[in-house]
Amino acid sequence: MTQTDALIQQGQATLRNNDRGGYTVPTAGLYPFQWNWDAGITALGWATFDEPRAWQELELLFKGQWDNGMVPHIVFHAPSDDYFPGPKEWGVTHEPPTSAISQPPLLATMARLLYEQAQDKQAARTRAAALLPRLAAYHRYFYRDRDPQQTGLVATYHPWESGMDNSPAWDTALSRVPPAQRSYRRRDLQHVDSDQRPLKSEYDRFIYLVDLFKQLQFDSDAIYQKSPYKVQDVSLNSVLLRANNDLLALCKELDYQDDLADLQRAGERAKSAISELWSDAHNCFLSRDLVSNELIPIRTTGGLMPLYAGATTQEQASRIAGKLSAWLDEAPFGLASTHPSESVFDAKRYWRGPTWLHINWMIANGLQLYGLNDIATRIKQASRDIIEQRGYWEYYNPCDGQGCGGPDFSWTAAIALYWLL
Length: 421
Ligand code: GLC
What we know:
Structural class: mainly alpha
Number of strands: 9
Helix content: 40-55%
Bound molecules: alpha-D-glucopyranose
Distance between the termini: 14 Å
């Protein structure tokens, strides 16, 4: 068997072993439920060998969608004691139970990719069409509830919503959040070494926010007014813009009849607002702290995501590409999530340095939109080298390639199947 065949087999086995009857857990133990953006990426992997199962991944996630359109970051399909905070802590009345925050909304992009690459076009048409109103409601939720002043950029109220939980980009904003005063027991440290996970001081604040949203009864206006943490995350906004463009394209392809002019306008506003986040000094885009109203001056892979949204100028894209070689030279095993020369870079700690394969794909994909194929190929090759050497970990130390976090990880296996193999 060739190494590629072996990796394909192992990738498929990873998804099958993490399948809990129609939805896929990110990894056994550490993350025992269905996560939002994981489900999108994981569907791409399923699509390479089981198309109906790929659609089912998205359909089951939408069972968690709220009446206001929000798709929560976790859907608790079945109980488990392995994870904190579980459904009781969130306090949401919904069936199935869910968390109360969202995650980077990439689902429409994934639906478009599934549709376009489907072998069984007839089935894909039916299943994609059924998702369209739900996807539109999800985007409308973001553009309406998360941007009440119509700035073009939606706000996140919790670092978990960025999907990049402990990125150093959130440090200052998070430091204004008071620590939770109640005691609680983390479960993640039963599964992974503490030097690869967020700190207690961060968790105390994560939990404070969870409690606050419950106390405010998940009321969007109240949260916008009162959350001590409020960030316009450039990465989430880019993911949303890309997904919105993909949704509009998919609606057209499938002759969807609803009026989508509002989403069209929201996308145009978003594109121009993202362009305001460019920093000449950093050669990348920056998120905005909405409490201090300042841009957050740290180079992270999140700041490269406007490429994936097609929201940069050609000149900005070329400038980013020009700096990426150095970013990769300093830490060659994939793109370090925080630039290796930032003082806060930490090679093993989650989003403070490690490389994440689905992010590598998004950025390589974005670079290709601008014809920047050499650097895209370098990122792809580095990603391929890692899985050949280490298999499917949650994330990897970008300096030596060591696999970190949870093993046999769904989105890593999925993006490898879809992109690298
Ligand atoms: C962590 C990651 C997040 C991911 C989740 C499940 O919270 O930061 O991006 O969705 O784990 O894999």
